[in-house]
Amino acid sequence: MAYEVNGATVEHDEEGYITNLGDWTVELADVIAAAEEIEMDDERWEVVNFLRDYYDEYQIAPAVRVLIKALKKTMGPEKGNNKYMYELFPYGPAKQACKIAGLPKPTGCV
Amino acid sequence: MTVKNFLYVNRKAPYGTIYALESLEVVLIGAAFDQDVSLAFVDDGVFQLTKGQNTDGIGVKNFSPTFRALGDYDVTKLFVEAESLAERGLTPDDLQEVMYEDEDDDWAEKPSIKIISRAEMADVMAGADVVLSF
After folding, report:
1. Strands B130-133 and B36-41, how do they pair?
2. Of A11, A37, A34, nearest to A24 (Cα)?
3. What are the pLDDT digits (tens) for A75-88?
4. Residues B28, A57: C-beta atoms closer than 8 Å
5. By residue range, what is the domain housing residue B110?
6. Which domains does chain A have, with CATH numbers?
7. CA distance B42 to chain A (A)
8. Count of domains in chain B?
9. What ipTM does this complex have?
10. B73 interfaces chain A, CB cutoff of 8 Å
């Protein structure tokens, strides 16, 4: 199974998480988002970029609780809450935002 | 719900077996359940916290940066046995810095790692409701 980006194919697993984290590009993020029926905008990019930075620093995708706590601290309570996060990513920020960010499925997320 | 006090005991080197990584994953998953979690590092387990790990040559992920995320998961007690360090020619300076922000103290940054003696480690283990050994 694979995504198509600019004529190239990028492998993903049965749930849509890309197999090789190094394959990620901004264009690929848009393609994954489209497959999830999500249109990327500044707010969603803010979350995706945060997840990528977090992974870069700690080598894990954060749990939703941790993600929301961190966003609350950096972006304020209007954005650091469950409701906002599920408005952006209706099927769950961990599942969808991590997938779009090209990260593995978060630890403990079944 | 009664909060139980869980102690994860890490005795093995970070690479070569899956124990160290699995332990850390279980800790991260378990942290979602609002329990009081501590980690102990004894024997070769102390190598898990050494700084400057580089796994390029063995083709596995260097997961040592993940210990620094534990504070986000409210896991703030990492006990390291002094004797185990000394027996391996290590000093506290060989360990990476792991900090957490203390919510009750205006988010002050505090170190999570505590170096304790073998006798103190025995007390930590005796005081735990549940001990999981890796």
Report:
1. unpaired
2. A11
3. 888 888 889 999 99
4. no
5. 5-133
6. 2-35 (3.30.1420), 42-100 (1.10.10.370)
7. 23
8. 1
9. 0.85
10. yes
